[in-house]
Design goal:
Elements: E1 2-7, H1 12-16, H2 19-30, E2 34-39, H3 45-55, E3 60-65, H4 67-75, E4 83-88, H5 94-99, H6 108-114, E5 116-125, E6 128-130, E7 133-137, H7 138-147, H8 154-165, E8 171-177, E9 181-186, E10 188-192, E11 214-219, H9 224-236, E12 245-250, E13 252-257, E14 261-265, E15 268-272, E16 275-289
Length: 296
């Protein structure tokens, strides 16, 4: 096996934990792997590094970082023979949690040696890839603000959400799929490949990364009184029971809004057109996962 480990030194936890880079190098040496460790130097650099690793004959390309780093590395591996390895050390770790991949201190490295390869679906919005979830509305605004923070983590995320909540107004959307049409005002429009954003916040309970479909969740108006019960439902995986939630499942979605605006893909922010096309690409990414994922 020839491998490449792509390390984002600016990822929040990596920047505070240089020991992780030392652990990576020690892991390679102890197991006598034919592997290199390459740091990223700029935004989207990890995608270029992943593609170069595939061209160099690597069969395993490992992302060491948060959801953004994983997104960039995975983007370079779609429809390639190489497998994506995860050492998830970000704030949310949505894809890693869904797949049962542990954190670095809980045998993530051992998964690379003793795991199995699972082929998963991927998604694109106007050609931009995502692997865990994408979103519009309040969802995207939170991601934009969160990306500017120097201190990350779940507490920072909650604080950012709370501060934005009182000034945000829902937008109007027309959403179409192969079988449905929905015209609505929405607080959040999220399209998920896995079942959660991260931190065990379940935006799409029951979603699976290998069912050949994407799960769309619309959260309509949310007021001060309804916000807390909805948040509780999100973390319990029970949002389907809320009258403020609509769910659709499909392979292709078209979304129209009032004008250009923000979207996020796995937490990464983009300014794109008013009209969005979202589609699934079945079994287009190979990922190394534990042989026996932990129970959720």
């Amino acid at each position: 096996m020839k491998a490449c480990f792509i390390f984002n030194p600016r990822s929040g936890r990596n920047a505070k934990n240089p020991i992780l880079l030392e652990r990576t190098r020690a892991f390679i040496e102890e197991n006598r792997l034919n592997a290199s460790v390459v740091p990223t130097e700029r935004p989207r650099h990890a995608t270029d590094l992943a593609r170069a690793a595939v061209d160099d004959g690597c069969t395993l390309v490992v992302a060491i970082g948060g959801d953004g780093t994983i997104n960039e590395v995975a983007a370079g591996l779609v429809h390639s023979p190489a497998a994506l390895g995860l050492i998830p050390c970000g704030s949310g770790n949505g894809l890693g949690r869904h797949l049962g991949v542990p954190r670095p201190g809980r045998d993530a490295f051992q998964t690379l040696l003793h795991g199995k390869i699972r082929s998963i679906d991927t998604g694109t919005v106007n050609g931009i890839p995502f692997f865990n979830a994408m979103g519009l509305g309040f969802d995207a605004e939170i991601s934009a603000r969160f990306s500017q923070l120097t201190r990350r983590g779940f507490a920072a995320y909650l604080g950012t959400t709370w501060r934005l909540f009182f000034g945000y107004r829902p937008e109007s959307y027309v959403i179409r799929s192969d079988a449905n049409r929905l015209e609505t005002e929405a607080f959040i429009v999220a399209i998920a490949n896995s079942d959660q954003y991260g931190n065990n916040c379940y935006i799409a309970p029951g979603a699976s990364v290998d069912d050949g479909q994407l799960d769309l969740t619309v959260i309509t108006r949310v007021g001060l009184v309804s916000a807390l019960p909805l948040a509780v439902r999100l973390f319990l995986g029970r949002i389907d029971g809320s009258a403020r939630v609509r769910r659709l499942r499909g392979t292709h979605f078209w979304i129209e809004r009032g004008g250009p605006g923000l979207v996020h893909t796995d937490g990464e922010i983009h300014q794109i057109d008013a009209n969005l096309e979202v589609k699934v690409h079945p079994a287009s990414l190979r990922v190394m996962v534990p042989n026996t994922p932990p129970a959720k």
